[in-house]
Amino acid sequence: MSDVSYTLPILLILVLAVAVVLYVVLDGFDLGIGILFPFFKTEVERDQAMNSVAPFWDGNETWLVYGGITLWAGFPFAFALIMPAVYLPVLIMLLALIFRGVAFEFRWVAKPRERKWDWSFTVGSILAAFAQGLVLGALLQEIRIENGQYAGGSFDWLTPFSLVCGLALVVGYGLLGATWLMLKTTGDVAEHARRLATPLLFALLFFIGVVSVWTPLQIPRIAERWFSVPNFYFLSQVPLATLLLAWLCWRSIRRGRTLLPFVSAVLIFLLAFFGLVMSNAPYIVPPTVTLWEGAAHPSSQMFFLIGAAILLPLILAYTVGVFWVFRAKVGPHAEGYH
């Protein structure tokens, strides 16, 4: 294998990792607000919560599209194996995101009879998050491949493990949403979000623990990766760092901080993502297809990376600019999303 053929897939997977991480973090708190929507009892509170993400929500989903295109263009063989295995949860996710986007727009013009759109916003958010967890669970529990083709059934993704992953992501996004509201809102909404954040944090830790134990028990290759020496001395720092961040998040929530709970919750997600990468690298379709086996022809990879070198900084600059312009907190009677 030439140096170029070896290096290009690594650069592509880094681009894919950036897109996935930014989507999970940015659209995570966005979906989390929809998940928490039923806990806000008054119309003013729900309006304030929605206004806190109104400038960002559609831009956040750019990273989902970017990640999907990167997988399709950069790793077409991997894409062709993954999609048949998770067609249904991906379809559910996309329909839920569309349904949720429609609800976001329509609830403002439906006032004062917006309650059905409130529930649509909630259901779409929960389904989208849960479906993403199902996809994650299906990939972690490994996809059946024979003769270079997907050899499983239409519902192989539907297992107790994938259901737990789905619930974990719903809870995790709920925590991101609660800490975001602590950061971006004032008054009753911020206080209500603070009360919700602590139980969500402990629930997320529970699910992280369950998945962390379940995964090596059902997949020997991952157990060997984590518990063999010298890997154990390095990788054992991941759960310790997670517990430290969870303590920091809990303490900052209790003390009424605004920025630190959100930052620590995001870092918990990043550590979980790092743990998943370390469990499965260098496979892009565990446990059979590596980055280099799933990648496109080097000329196609180079073409895509040139485009990424131009577009990625532009999208990042736009994202940072929007967050900077709308950096102020949102009060109870701020101008709505019209």
What can you see in these coordinates?
The protein has 338 residues and is mostly helical. The protein has one domain. It has 15 helices and four strands. The strands form two sheets. The protein has a two-stranded antiparallel ribbon. α9 runs antiparallel to α12. The longest helix is centred in the first third of the chain and has 34 residues, at 3-36. The model has no long low-confidence stretch (mean pLDDT 90).
List the helices and strands and how they pair.
Elements: H1 3-36, H2 43-51, H3 57-60, H4 62-74, H5 76-85, H6 87-109, H7 115-140, E1 145-146, E2 149-150, H8 160-184, H9 187-218, H10 220-227, H11 231-235, H12 237-254, H13 259-280, E3 283-285, E4 289-290, H14 291-294, H15 298-325
Antiparallel strand pairs: 1-2, 3-4
Helix pairs in contact: 1-4, 1-7, 1-8, 1-15, 4-5, 6-7, 7-8, 8-9, 8-13, 9-10, 9-12, 12-13
Subunit organisation of the chains: single chain
Q: What does the overall shape look like?
A: globular
Q: If helices are DSSP runs of H or I spanning 4 or more residues, what is the number of helices?
A: 15
Distance between the termini: 56 Å
Helix content: over 70%
Summarize model confidence as the mean pLDDT. Answer: 90
Which strand-content bin applies to the residues? under 5%
Q: Could you tell me the number of beta strands?
A: 4
Physical arrangement of strands within the biggest beta sheet: 1-2
Radius of gyration: 20 Å
- Number of folding domains? 1
Describe the main β-sheet briefly.
Answer: 2 strands, antiparallel
Low-confidence runs: none
